[in-house]
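Purpose: get a first structural picture of the assembly so the mutagenesis plan has something to point at.
Setup: two entries, given in the order below. No constraints added.
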Amino acid sequence: MIRCLFLIALLASSVAQAQAQALKPFVRGSQQAIMASHQGKPFILALWSLDCTHCVDDMVLFGKLAKKYRTLDLVLVSTDAPEHKQQIARLLHRHRLEQAESWVFADGYVERLRFEIDPQWYGELPRTYFFDAAGHAIAVSGKIDADQVERWIWGR
Amino acid sequence: MKILLLIVVLMAPSFTPPASAHEAGAKSGMENKRVDMPSGERSLAMSVALDGQGRLWRASVRDKQLRVDYSDDAGKTFSAPVEVNPQGEAIGADGENRPKIAIGRRGEIYVSWTMLLDKPYTGHVRFSRSLDGGRTFFAPLTVNDNHEVIGHRFDALTVGADGSVYLIWLDKRDLVAAKAKGEKYGGSALYYAVSDNQGASFAANVKLADHSCDCCRIALVVPPKGAPVAFWRHNFEDNIRDHALARLDGKGEMRRVSHDEWQIDACPHHGPALAIASDNAYHFAWFDNAPRAHGLFYAQSRDEGKTFSSPLHFGDDAHAAAHPDVLNLGREVFLVWKEFDGEVTSVRMMRSRDGGTSWSKNESVAATHDASDHPQLVARNGRVWLSWNSKLEGYRLIALEGAL
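Result (structure tokens, whole complex):
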């Protein structure tokens, strides 16, 4: 019976994975689309890349938090390119972040993508925005702190 | 029960993202995946150098090949490129980690690049040379004498006053050694190597400094006398990423240049620039994003880096001023950098005629509506050019004399 339950759980998790969100191409206007779809809702926008050593630590943290707080609204934007989608998917899978809304830079004119996100962001990674329900954000460059994120989650 | 098991077995593989061909042989674990950004088909990142005859030499990357070509008409047309590495290899070709080219005292063409390995953040520093005016290149050498599959990346190349070839790079060997002993080690180390035989071979690697930042380009410049000077973003205590200076003379004496106190546990991907004038004035340009110092800064030193002028903030922060280069002709100093206004990327320039004390207003000298490389300044015979590659316009060499 226990084995049976275990298998059902496994199956359920596989089905959950099957519903992993597709990696969306982040192009001109995507930032506005993200803002519009999260209007009135607090969310975290996390910019990261595969070649950023500190970003992986954030992914580990987000993976844990997403499990702990099912209502955490997380938007991940990789600044890599669409041709890295397999590597991105593997990393998201590894940290159990398949459920998170996930984007990848899909325009070589990265200056414009960065500017649309935040003119004051120079491309340093990781870069994380904590948006409140009114659409105002606190921006953090560098690795984020677990306590800081939990405080934000409780304060939403 | 059996049916359930069968369903699980059948379904599970389809939910694992497929591995690409080169990952197939690697054991699982994210540390075994390529995550460096390889050269791709054609990268915008390139370097140029002018030789004694005014010929413009260029190193670029395409399809795992380092290519060298030249122009005799100020960058309008280029020769058929020569492929330097017949065995293709993944080559770092982004803004901070680009191929390098330098001209020797006897017209030798020297090139260096970072060969990316299959583990993330790893690479070897590679070098080749041509002694027949760029017609043929010698088989590439690996210059780092530690051959672990770890980071030896972000190479910088120059030729000393005596013709010696200098290569410097960011090296992870001390981090690995510290970890093996259970100790902590912040950032990378700077290692360099010198060749006194026209690049036929390099002497043993020498450590210049511990604890540099991990992914910013290094500026490496030859002063009028003595060994080259390196200028880089350093990882000071508590992740404070300010800039430091040291001479490649074996003494390893490091000086702190900026005190912006940018404390960040992140990759700025934004290295500094240095020019040293014939009067031995050092001109520095860098980017920081600290609460007290945000944007681009210029400073100078008149005593070989012992004391510094107060940093001058330049560029428009509202337009993401970034990626500066600096160059001087005696007391004339040129600064260029990139800005973006929401639609257009421009290279802005300002100029000093009095050794960096007073400056002209800044102005746009080139623009594009799509992706572009970092700007580079080159000079010869009292003339200065902006070298800039952009996706839409292609390569441009723009004379800056008439800009004022």
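The helical segments of chain A are 2-18, 30-37, 55-68, 85-94, 110-117, 146-155.
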